[in-house]
Amino acid sequence: MDVPDGSDGPDTGPLPFMVAIPQHELETILRDRAAELGVPVRRGVAVTGVDADDEGVTVHDDAGGTVRARWLVGADGGRSVVRRAAGIGFPGTDPEITGRQALVDLAEADDLEPGWHHGPEGVWCVGPAPGRILTVEFDGPPPDRDVPVTAEELEKSLRRVTGTRVRVTAVHSATRWTDNARQASAYRAGRVLLAGDAAHVHPPFGGQGLGLGLSDAMNLGWKLAAVVHEWSGDALLDTYDPERRPAGAEVLELTLAQVALMRPDPKTIALRRFAGQLLDTRAGVNAAAALLAGPDVHAPLPGWEDDPLVGRLAPEVRLDDGRRLAEVARDGRFTLVTDGTVPVPDPESDPDRTTTVPGPRPMLVRPDGVVAWSGRAPQCPRADTA
Fold first, then answer.
1. What is the dihedral sign for C-alpha 152, 153, 154, 158?
2. I need a labelling partner for 266 at 20 to 30 A (CA). Which of 239, 253, 305, 343 fits?
3. Is the pTM above the cut of 0.70?
4. Nearest-CA neighbor of 175 among 195, 198, 153?
């Protein structure tokens, strides 16, 4: 989705348009980076229990092993064992639909046009990748989500919603999902923290779940590193919940609204037509792009509620040496941009954590890309208090 020039939208985010990355490519990037850093990854091992105390956390697995750590991040999906062991609630709405998404080989598919379509029996999408299909049916949740998705099931669903005689001749990958929407009542319980689907589940439209989970990891990662390396106290982790849970709640509301607009009844069809007219405007598409991409979510940093910059992803700026801010701020450090007109912290106090660069717009950018201070304040905070 291209946002024409950003002039009608908020001055936030590194790019004025959305960039889509296929999930399998992103997984490869993350896997390679973990290997580069020497991070051990144990696959095929499931967590079965968690014991937490004031000093740390003991994790039990189904291979009979245990791991002891100072902190535990539960990123183990919507049915999170870690979340349940920590006693964290997971309120929300129950499922009403069944969605299916797959990469398949099709035959007799000449009547299937690419793109999104609505019909009296549901919604379907063909593409954009060859063989990618999606169906949504409003006949309640599936009786068993754990049963493998077969070619026969996908073919029957496609035929019901499209009214065609299409055949599914092979299935390369397939998932079944619902509009179950839930959010953890807290993202931290002592030494246990939650991220990704363990903290929030919702329909997968727009790839918002993956983006939301990555934003959780970015926010929590640098804070946990600061605490582990002891250049910040444990209280820094208390900021994770108030900064990320509102973002999750906003995405849940948006996905619920998307499902509501897909319903095939006459009243919803009229509402969908009206919503489509709004999205045909520049202001409408800018607002939708900001919601889907995430930059418009405001981290509520105390004292900066009315500032248009602080608490949001840093805008892209060209620095005095010709580099872009994104080139400098990708190393996991704080980035202090200064134009020489406002006081800055003593560089000797944070030599390993802050990069200071001259630029046109004074601001302190956290490792997760969020602006923690702008030149409107008389004094820039230390990195370990941002």
1. positive
2. 253
3. yes
4. 153
